[in-house]
Model the fold of this input.
Amino acid sequence: MKLTTAPIIEAVLDIDCDGPPGQEIGALEGPARDSFLDRYPQFRTQLLQEARIEQQPDGPVQFSARRGIQAFQFLQEDEKQLVQVRAQGFSFNRLAPYSSLDDYLPEIERTWRLFVGFASPVLVRALRLRYINRILLPLVDNRVELDHYLRIGPRLPDEEKLTLLGFLNQHAAVEAGTGNQVNIILTPQPRENGALPLIFDIEASRVEAIEPERWDALLAAMQSLRALKNRVFRNTLTEQCLELFR
Done:
């Protein structure tokens, strides 16, 4: 479904995979720099910090902390596009403006093959395709009729005496036939410039063992997730809402 002004503010492809036994993510920094810095000259290290508190019966409280590298991020100059070398695999992020997955597939394939070359993943375990949409719903008399824009959405137990101030709708489902899973989140943001911003977050995921060199199999999995995402998007929004992007 082609939209003139897609409301996507970020699209993310995650490919989770098993690395060679004993491989540490820190050892991948040098090879990753050599592979990505020419087209993604900005570099960041994303750190992970975990804290744990334990107490045994009749024993003292024990506190432990762990800090490590979660990912190496390589960004283009305008920071609209980046690739990530994660402890769990590879990611490709595209921020607005976003056109179509077809436009980015050649670069996804190129950067994935570079990742395979220096990280030597053993097996792909799962793929996730996530789209975060931000939809500006116009306010009329400082109100918005959500039913005009959403096929599914929040409902109040007393529509006459209660006024909706906020909501968080979350759904998780599995697709018959493919086994693909989808997580859907709808929630508003504070009003701005005569509109109510609505965050519509769709994450489609697939657990499948794929050889890292099998780009054809990876592409088929992505297209399957994309079809699910598109169906969720189309069946959640009304025609009046879709007209906002045409």
